[in-house]
Write a structure and sequence with these properties.
Number of domains: 2
Strand content: 15-25%
Number of strands: 14
CATH architecture of the largest domain: 3-Layer(aba) Sandwich
Structural class: alpha/beta
Helix content: 10-25%
Shape: globular
Order of helices and strands: EEEEEHEEHHEHEHEHEEEE
CATH class of the largest domain: Alpha Beta
Strand order of the largest sheet: 7-6-5-8-9-10
Amino acid sequence: MSPIAVSQVHPEASDFVLRLNSNLVVLDVSVTDGDGVPVGGIGKDRFRIHEDGKSQTISQYSADERPVSLGFVIDSSGSMFKKVLQVRRAVHSFLTVSNPEDSYFVLGFNDIPRLGLPGETPFTSQPEQVKDAVASFRAEGKTSLYDGLSVALNHIQSSSLERRFLVVVSDGKDTSSSLRLVDSIRQCRSSRVTIFTLGLFEDEDEDQNSGVLKQMARVTGGQYFHPADSKELSDACVRIARDIRARYTLAYTPPDSAKRALRRIKVELAARPDEGKRVVRTRTEYTLEPAARQ
């Protein structure tokens, strides 16, 4: 099954049903006002989807809050030593406003990536288990960001939940991965996972690369944050959690599925004179995998 183009769910699982053997591009869409507050109550008729500049017909729509699968992907290299407590507090803040039915995993990466939950527990809905997993990592060694993200993207595919997110906390500079950046971005494009990134660094730090973190968020429809202190980090996590709970799900059938693997996406909202600024975020591109081609 292609994680971006083909999805299979049982009709009783939710109102958002994707038919077996159909080729669908499925989008998690965020709509916020000018202050970054999620906006609800937007109907299907107000959304517009364009692929490679051509208008597409929305075949599936859902505005219902449903549980999600989410992974905290945390840089535990030596450069993060002074930020460990900040990260723990931020995760705690996230958990206080998220859906109690959400399913989590935790992955830390330094020289190598490592899952934080016990081996027999791939996912958990218990906040205390998540907190313990985050606290289990020691800040030491190098940074394998690309390898860590790859393991996280592969792991989340085993979740039974259709809506999938990652929250990546790092300074962004990879120093030890076997994968290259181009491989990492290619995997992001071909996934159905929305990635939020949090850049923890001072602007003069050598061990930072905000460009990589911005790109990971942009291509998957997430958002990049650069918090200046512990409070801003916790506030950003709360904002992400609320954004996830208020997102819309849209789907359409891609045209000419046998042609051009890389597709560009733009989602717009029909304006109304009685409302203020609206910001729409979703993935900006995706890769149509060979298995989905006709």
